[in-house]
Amino acid sequence: MIKQLADEVRGMVGISIRDRTSMVYMETCRSEDDSAPPIDIGAAFPIMVSANGRAWLARAAPEERDKALNQIKVLYPKLHAERIAEVRHALRDFVQLGYCTSPGILRPDRLALAVPMARPVNAEIVVFNCTVALRGRAVPPLRAEIAGRLVTLVREVEAAMGAGA
After folding, report:
1. 126 — phi, psi (to 5°)?
2. Residue 82 and residue 134: Cα distance in Å, rounded?
3. What is the pTM of this model?
4. What is the residue range of 53's domain?
5. How far apart are CA 115 and CA 155, in angstroms?
6. pLDDT of 41-90, one tens digit each?
7. What is the CA radius of gyration of the chain?
């Protein structure tokens, strides 16, 4: 399922979980398109700047979220100060949209969206994300297309696991 989506959007689809102040990829699939981001299993990205990290924060229980953000504030005070307003905005967006983004934060030429599973798996919040190269494509329609497909993918995985909302 994730390989099919990666091929269709000419990008990368991954599955990640939290490891301290980062999100670590447990699985990745990418299209053969040479613009697909070359992200592999084990790659880690900071929670506060990645779409999958923001999706994790959105799904986490408030006390777990606060604990993670406080850990980042202590270890990386500059990053925390620079990004906390964006994170709060992403949390509000998640309530409305059901996904999080990080358009151009890590790479200005890429769009990343992420959707957490509705329930933890083995006590872990599992996050699916999709990253594509913009290549001159308009962000709003691309975001809408990918968001709908990514949400559908996550819901299908949840249904297959019997872990839906």
Report:
1. -100, 130
2. 25
3. 0.94
4. 2-160
5. 10
6. 999 999 999 999 999 999 999 999 999 999 999 999 999 999 999 999 99
7. 15
